[in-house]
Amino acid sequence: MDELIHDDKGNATISNDGATIMKLLDVVHPAAKILVDIAKSQESKVGDGTARVVLFAEEFLKEAKLFIYGVHSKSYT
């Protein structure tokens, strides 16, 4: 699926490439920055699969949240 990204300067980019989309994002949150770094690393080493590694990392973060807040805590899910 193609994504349209519009920045502050009026530039628009249409892409379905995860690495391109991740490069264009202005990320502030520390966990999100890690996801961007993972995508950049995947792109530079392999050249493909950036969306897949971001989805894997996102699932790992979801599972880690259970250990951080407690397995039985439902208020944070």
TrEMBL record:
SUPFAM superfamilies: GroEL equatorial domain-like (SSF48592)
Single GO molecular function: ATP binding
Keywords per UniProt: ATP-binding, Chaperone, Nucleotide-binding
UniProt record similarity statement: Belongs to the TCP-1 chaperonin family.
Keyword Chaperone assigned: yes
UniProt lineage: Eukaryota, Viridiplantae, Streptophyta, Embryophyta, Tracheophyta
Natural source organism: Coptis chinensis
Domain of life: Eukaryota
The name this protein goes by in its record: T-complex protein 1 subunit eta
The keyword ATP-binding is annotated on this UniProt entry: yes
InterPro entries attached to this UniProt entry: Chaperone_TCP-1, Chaperonin_TCP-1_CS, Cpn60/GroEL/TCP-1, GROEL-like_equatorial_sf
